[in-house]
Amino acid sequence: MKSYLAAAISMTSVPDLAKNLLQAEELIDLAIRQGAELVTLPENFSFLGGEEEKISQAEAIAKESEKFLKTIAQKYQITILGGGYPVPTTNGKVYNVASLIEPNGIEVARYEKAHLFDVNLPDGNTYQESNTVKAGMKLPSVYESKDYGNLGISVCYDVRFPELYRHLSNAGAEVLFIPAAFTAYTGKDHWQVLLQARAIENTCYIIAPAQTGNHYGRRQTHGHAMIVDPWGLILADTGDKPGVAIAEIDPTRLEQVRRQMPSLQHRVFIS
């Protein structure tokens, strides 16, 4: 693992595939011009619209999302995470898939979101992700990248389930991806503290691209794409506007934190 610059992108996706991919490439280009070698896109980067629309267009969204990620990786010679897009499965549902692509255009890791967002929030908004999304049943694996470290993938609501990150940590993860479309209501109280908690308890870097702003109807997200270091310090934050959070992922810093706070070695109740 070398020292490198990573980017967490914040964008405002809408129910328009072409418009979203154009916005994504503009932000990717901005990140690369600032030196980023590893670039991450948020959940729903290619489409954020109503559930019926998503299902009816799922095949096209999946095809174009995958084509886009592979093309961008090769064009800019970067490693890129597509943080979540619908891929059709059985019973008229989709998987919410995050995909990691290397500069040669080859997918090296794929994760189907396991924890689905079925909640009734105090602001009156109700979400039933399971109506259209099938939960992934496989634990995410860690991809061992020679240049960028041991990489673990999760998606959005997963961040509330620390056992998933402990699984990744046990598998050797050094950098954790948490692409999200966090609601504005929950995000203001929970987003930052959850990211810092996952970083601190696993002594890992967190790269968390995010959706921001108003997408359609009452669907509003929190923003604040962030990169957090293994000590829990926020290295970069896009705020509530579309943009790019860029920070150095430094193996020396990772080793230092793990040496000074060796909590992973001090666990007692482990199976």
From TrEMBL:
> A Gene Ontology MF term for this entry?
acyltransferase activity
Keywords assigned by UniProt? Acyltransferase, Hydrolase, Lipoprotein, Transferase
Domain (CN hydrolase) ranges: 4-251
Q: Which domain of life is it from?
A: Bacteria
Keyword Transferase on this protein?
A: yes
The family database entries (PROSITE patterns) matched by this protein are listed as:
CN_HYDROLASE, UPF0012
Query: Cross-referenced InterPro entries, in alphabetical order?
Result: C-N_Hydrolase, C-N_Hydrolase_sf, Nit1/2_C-N_Hydrolase, UPF0012_CS
Q: Which family does it belong to?
A: Belongs to the carbon-nitrogen hydrolase superfamily. NIT1/NIT2 family.
Q: What is the protein name given in its UniProt record?
A: Nitrilase/cyanide hydratase and apolipoprotein N-acyltransferase
The organism named in the record is Trichodesmium erythraeum (strain IMS101)
